[in-house]
Specification:
Elements: E1 2-5, E2 17-23, E3 31-32, H1 34-42, H2 46-50, E4 61-65, E5 74-81, H3 88-105, E6 109-112, H4 124-139, E7 158-161, H5 167-191, H6 199-213, E8 216-220, H7 222-228, H8 231-237, E9 245-252, E10 261-265, E11 267-271, H9 291-305, E12 311-321, E13 332-335, E14 341-344, H10 351-362, E15 369-374, H11 378-384, E16 389-393, H12 396-409, E17 413-415, E18 433-434, H13 442-451, E19 459-463, E20 469-470, E21 476-477, H14 482-492
Parallel strand pairs: 1-7, 2-5, 2-6, 6-7, 10-12, 10-15, 11-12, 14-18, 15-19, 16-17
Antiparallel strand pairs: 2-3, 4-5, 8-9, 9-12, 13-14, 16-19, 20-21
Helix pairs in contact: 3-4, 4-5, 5-9, 6-9, 8-10, 9-14, 10-13, 12-14
Bound molecules: ligand BES, manganese (II) ion (MN) and zinc ion.
Length: 496
């Protein structure tokens, strides 16, 4: 799919389909946007005459064909809702509604006149980014494992964003397209089942990215982890027949002297729970337990693809969490890379065990900021549902920056506390501390565990258990929080 920014008149645009926005809460109070008004005038009121058939819900669409004196063969009207309520949510819903209509129409090309509807709160570059990301999201397909592929004829090949081009808008377009590529990669890695997407597969994907985008990659094997003393990571992988990998992928887009941003992604390619076995229902969804890893690969792909002026190091501990004769058992004590000892009271709290060693390992890259991304706790889903990612940080300015980037990317987070009082729940009679803290505040005690390994660093933790994938009929990876990570990295480097 190819996007371009160029000035177009809606009435003379020679494209398969023009998309026009219509305000109005109810049928009686419909109001045309500037572009829609031009088409209406040219067609002598044919557009206005059809408006009663357009539902008022934001994102509803109505297709008109062969309007008199209008060059485009099809005109797709999209409801924007009441004018005085129009904001960021409505803009995105309208783009999404238009995109799914274009998909159902099997349109080959379109001009999205929605992008010129300016919001008071955001620059036009925001419109461009969110138009591209939402259209690309609507057209994402994962059918590589179906024997009958859906026809590829239904792909939208050309999308014009009718704006007067300038450097800022072109940069927004390049950023959004690269981000969408990163989101697609994260989604596909998440959707792939654990018998394909193994730790070795993730390592191969990192190597492929390194080839395609000229990145540095290093993959640590079990023997390297043993030499280093990564006792927690090794404990989790102990019953798996798949070799564990610690993937380090570096992109250098800024001066070598500039400290990197470290992204640490949980890469459990399948989480059975281990000896603390999970119940059978919905266990298939634990193939998504590597979504943090997928988001790190996706974000690096995006940043490298747009040649962003940032230095990033991605660190991915990848393994399976399995039961078996060699499995760790509740009560086992391990020594982490940091030297601290942990009593593993529940083998299903494995994410924090692989992350703690990876976070300690991150220190050697002297990162400016370290962010870990993990499908860490069911408790986070209970707290925040499927809307917001849980945000924890040991530095309030970093938390604020992260939240602003999240709002900008519409990949939202909600900050949770990380107060010392919670540490008490992790106490152990047999080791320095335990890997679980009981049911109260489960996502907070998980973060508090990680906090014990990041005292020397400026650190944020994103619990994406509720946001990385959808369940039910629409089951599948969302690619979150790639948009947030990319936006955060760019803003961190000074780009607005
Ligand atoms: N990967 C899971 C977290 C998870 C569970 C994410 C369900 C999304 C949906 C994690 O490894 C896990 O099992 N966490 C346990 C921790 C508990 C044993 C303290 C959990 O949340 O139940
Ligand atoms: Mn688990
Ligand atoms: Zn897990």
């Amino acid at each position: 799919m190819e996007f371009s920014i160029k000035t177009l008149s809606p009435e003379t645009a020679e494209t398969g389909c023009i998309v026009l926005g219509i305000y109005g809460g109810n049928a009686a109070s419909k109001e045309l946007t500037a572009s829609a008004r031009r088409v209406d005038q040219r067609s002598k009121g044919a557009l206005a005459a059809a408006l009663t058939d357009l539902a008022s819900k934001v994102g509803s669409t109505l297709l008109l064909r062969a309007l008199p004196n209008v060059a485009a063969e099809r005109v797709l009207l999209v409801s924007l809702g009441a004018r005085n309520e129009f904001g960021e949510t409505q803009y995105r819903d309208a783009v999404r509604g238009a995109a799914s209509a274009l998909r159902d129409l099997a349109a080959k090309e379109a001009a999205l006149f929605l992008v010129d509807v300016k919001l008071d709160s955001r620059p036009l570059s925001w419109n461009v980014r969110h138009a591209v990301l939402n259209v690309r999201e609507a057209f994402y397909r994962f059918d590589e494992l179906k024997s009958q592929k859906k026809s590829t004829a239904a792909t939208l090949a050309k999308v014009t964003l009718p704006l007067s081009s300038n450097a800022q808008l072109e940069q927004a377009l390049a950023e959004a397209e690269a981000t969408a590529d990163g989101v697609d990669l994260a989604r596909t890695l998440g959707n792939l089942p654990s018998n394909i997407c193994t730790p070795s597969y993730l390592a191969d994907q990192a190597k492929k990215l390194a080839r395609d985008f000229k990145l540095e990659v290093e993959v640590l094997e079990r023997k390297d982890m043993e030499k280093l003393g990564m006792g927690a990571l090794l404990a989790v992988t102990s019953a798996s027949h798949e070799p564990p990998k610690l993937i380090v992928l570096r992109y250098g887009g800024a001066a070598k002297s500039k400290q990197p941003l470290a992204l640490v992604g949980k890469g459990i390619t399948f989480d059975t729970g281990g000896i603390s076995l999970k119940p059978a229902a919905e266990m298939d969804e634990m193939k998504f337990d590597m979504s943090g890893a997928g988001s790190v690969l996706g974000a690096i792909r995006a940043l490298a693809g747009m040649k962003a002026p940032v230095n990033v190091v991605g660190i991915i501990p990848a393994c399976e969490n399995m039961p078996g004769g060699h499995a760790i058992k509740p009560g086992d004590v391990v020594t982490t890379l940091s030297g601290q000892t942990v009593e593993i009271l529940n083998t299903d709290a494995e994410g924090r065990l692989i992350l703690c060693d990876a976070l300690t390992y991150a220190e050697r890259f002297k990162p400016d900021v370290v962010v870990d991304i993990a499908t860490l706790t069911g408790a986070c889903v209970i707290a925040l549902g499927h809307v917001a990612t849980g945000l924890f940080a040991n530095d309030q300015r970093l938390a604020d920056d992260m939240r602003e980037a999240a709002d900008d990317a519409w990949d939202r987070v909600w900050q949770m506390p990380l107060w010392e009082e919670y540490q008490e729940q992790l106490r152990s009679n047999f080791a320095d501390f335990a890997n679980i803290g009981g049911r109260p505040g489960g996502s907070i005690t998980a973060a508090s565990f990680l906090a014990r390994f990041t005292r020397k660093q400026r650190w944020a933790h994103l619990d994406i258990a509720g946001t990385a994938w959808r369940s039910g009929r629409e089951k599948g990876s969302t690619g979150r929080p790639v948009p947030l990570l990319v936006r955060f990295a760019l803003r961190h480097a000074g780009r607005k």
